[in-house]
From TrEMBL:
Protein name: Orotidine 5'-phosphate decarboxylase
Known EC number: 4.1.1.23
Orotidine 5'-phosphate decarboxylase domain span: 4-220
Pathway(s) served: Pyrimidine metabolism; UMP biosynthesis via de novo pathway; UMP from orotate: step 2/2
A molecular function (GO) term: orotidine-5'-phosphate decarboxylase activity
Superkingdom as given in the UniProt entry: Bacteria
Function: Catalyzes the decarboxylation of orotidine 5'-monophosphate (OMP) to uridine 5'-monophosphate (UMP).
């Protein structure tokens, strides 16, 4: 089985990002390039990282009217990303149009509820109820819209997997026992997320900020 760990290359400098990806390359299955990276380095940066030969997950978390999101999807066709994110709260029509505009080889997955939020944060956004129910509801909407899967925390992935048997599930907010939690609120270990049905494990700071990123990536790999 291929390594499910995607390294979140959340670094502002392109050279440093490239160097880190090269160092840990043997211990990861793909690379996630997010807003920080894409805003700083754009298409050029994606091409530079793609030279490493690992699948690219372009985490743009698109959230706009359907026409605009479809246009953005078309604009990134040329980059041939393996995975792209949109926000499920953008609604069914937006997700349908995003999927229709994506290239054939690209999985479109919907972010349900950010792992940096808990039940209290959810209520503050005007959504009554629990994170768990909110994630399951948005997963159902994403499935109905024809997306490939969702992004959720390790707290929900087992339940989502029961509800959507052949879905593709991306789980960030992963921490080993000795890692700091930072701004994340719904965290589990990489092993638990995988056992509960995650298809992709997104790991950033536990590798990026480690004193020895290669050792950190190896340690995570060894638990899987
Ligand atoms: O879509 C994501 O990848 C994502 C969704 C989510 O709910 N939470 C979340 O942390 N992420 C991303 O996953 C990565 C997590 O980074 P670390 O907390 O440093 O491991 C970051 O790049 C986030 O942008």
């Amino acid at each position: 089985m291929s390594n499910p760990v995607y390294l979140a290359l959340d670094l502002p400098q392109l050279d440093a990002a490239k160097a880190l990806a090269e160092r840990v390359r043997a211990h990861i299955g793909g690379i996630k390039l997010g807003l920080e990276f894409f805003c700083a380095h754009g298409h050029h940066g994606v091409h530079e990282i793609a030279h490493l030969g690992l699948p690219i997950f372009l985490d743009l978390k698109l959230h706009d009217i359907p026409n605009t999101v479809a246009g953005a999807m078309q604009a990134i066709h040329v980059l041939e990303p393996a995975i792209v994110t949109v926000h499920a709260s953008g609604g069914r029509a937006m997700m349908e149009d995003a999927k229709a505009a994506a290239g054939n080889g690209t999985r479109v997955v919907a972010v349900t509820m950010l792992t940096s939020m808990d039940d209290r944060d959810l209520v503050q956004t005007g959504v009554a109820g629990k994170a768990h129910d909110h994630v399951l509801r948005l997963a159902e909407l994403a499935q109905a819209a024809g997306l490939d899967g969702i992004v959720c925390s390790g707290h929900e992935v087992a339940a989502v997997h029961r509800q959507w048997k052949d879905g593709f599930f991306v789980v960030p907010g992963l921490r080993m026992a000795d890692n700091g939690i930072g701004d994340q609120k719904r965290v589990v270990t990489p092993r638990r997320a995988r056992d509960d049905g995650a298809s992709v494990l997104v790991v950033g700071r536990p590798i990026n900020r480690a004193d020895d990123p290669v050792a950190a990536a190896r340690a995570i790999e060894a638990t899987l």
